[in-house]
Specification:
binds flavin mononucleotide; alpha+beta; four-stranded antiparallel sheet; six-stranded mixed sheet; NAD(P)H nitroreductase; Nitroreductase/BluB; Nitroreductase-like; globular; NADH Oxidase
């Protein structure tokens, strides 16, 4: 039984935990979250102004992103010696209130697993390129599966070369469709600012390579540069492979399931980072309902696909990204 009780929580602890939370991945780096603190409770809310109205009208990806931030918040509190008690979606009348986290003092020493995972929060970055041929460490996939299950989601690996090829082809088809939709391309333009920007959100030119190597099969990247020649000079050595393709799936397709998928995603990414592995995300096909239904029916055993990822050892340097300051996303209530 857990031996903990409600406790006062220092401002530096809250601030540090929120700083760690916002390092989570979010679709187009929208950072669609807000945190409010009252006594020992930290509440996480979605920021609907940051939802992708065209690509993500339901807010599914917004909630996956917030779920990833929630995982970091939980982990950071544990690392600081506190025990987070999380209630997901505590008020049906306030759908943007995603979680109330009651912070309790923990009485158990911080485990080495928490230490190892926590150390990856800063190291984790999204990858947008190929992977090196180095073999993925034995047991990693089993570890990722377990990690996802512990958070209420599941990992389906595209082991069959045809399934992997089909996922790449569906990503290509989705990219093609979205490229021809003016509403979609304007939305990408809103979230992929030009290199002169002072913004601290969006996918910026420092975050994607100017050219991506052709992998086999090829999963196209999103067109953040929009023909402007933006992007960092790629430094890979030309041996880029596609990596391991996996789907992160859930049994249901509800806001609670999306939050669970987000927590599972971040926990998996932090586990992979412990072995110096990164993930590239290809969620274009999951934004087109017909393609998502096809992927669900044929590759997910009727579970709901939430993310498509390639995992491997990055070829070339990891690119960087930006975040809004904590003061922009956190309020302390009296
Ligand atoms: C739900 C979700 C969907 C995403 N889809 C894509 C994608 O299709 N293509 C891509 O390049 N990155 C994708 N990303 C990664 C984000 O762009 C990335 O997390 C963000 O730019 C912040 O960068 P960082 O992960 O390196 O911190 C996705 C992230 C999330 C959480």
């Amino acid at each position: 039984m857990r031996t903990s009780h409600r406790t006062a929580i220092g401002r530096d602890v809250v601030r540090g935990a929120v700083e760690d939370a916002v390092r989570a991945p979010s679709v187009h780096n929208t950072q669609p979250w807000r945190f409010s603190v009252r006594g020992p409770r930290i509440s996480l809310r979605a920021d609907p102004d940051r939802r992708l109205d065209v690509a993500d009208p339901q807010g599914r990806e917004m909630l996956i992103s917030c779920g990833a931030a929630l995982y970091n918040l939980r982990l950071s509190l544990r690392k600081r010696g506190y025990e987070p008690d999380v209630r997901l979606l505590p008020d049906a009348d306030r759908p943007h209130l995603l979680a109330d986290v009651e912070v309790q003092s923990g009485h158990e020493p911080v485990s080495s697993e928490v230490d190892r995972e926590y150390a990856q929060i800063e190291r984790r970055h999204s990858h947008r390129g190929g992977f090196r041929p180095d073999p993925v460490p034995t047991g990693l996939l089993a570890a990722l599966r377990l990690t996802a299950e512990q958070e209420g989601a599941r990992v389906v690996q595209a082991v069959d070369v045809h399934v992997k090829g089909a996922l790449a082809a569906l990503t290509d088809a989705a990219e093609h469709i979205q490229h021809r939709m003016p509403a979609y391309t304007s939305e990408i333009a809103r979230w992929a600012p030009s290199p002169t920007t002072a913004r601290k959100d969006g996918v910026q030119h420092v975050s994607y390579p100017r050219r991506t190597p052709k992998t086999e099969p090829h999963f196209p990247q999103r067109d953040f540069a929009r023909g402007q020649g933006w992007g960092a000079e790629p430094k890979d050595d030309g041996t880029a492979l596609a990596g391991i393709a996996v789907l992160l799936v859930t049994a249901e397709d509800t806001p609670a399931a999306w939050l669970r998928a987000g927590q599972a995603l971040e926990r998996m990414l932090l586990r992979a980072a412990q072995d110096d592995l990164s993930a590239a995300y290809h969620t274009q096909a999951l934004e087109i309902p017909e393609l998502r239904a096809f992927i669900r029916k044929h590759f997910c055993g009727d579970a709901y696909p939430q993310m498509i990822l390639r995992i491997g050892m990055p070829a070339g340097e990891e690119l960087t990204t930006v975040r809004r300051p904590v003061a922009d996303v956190m309020i302390e209530e009296p």
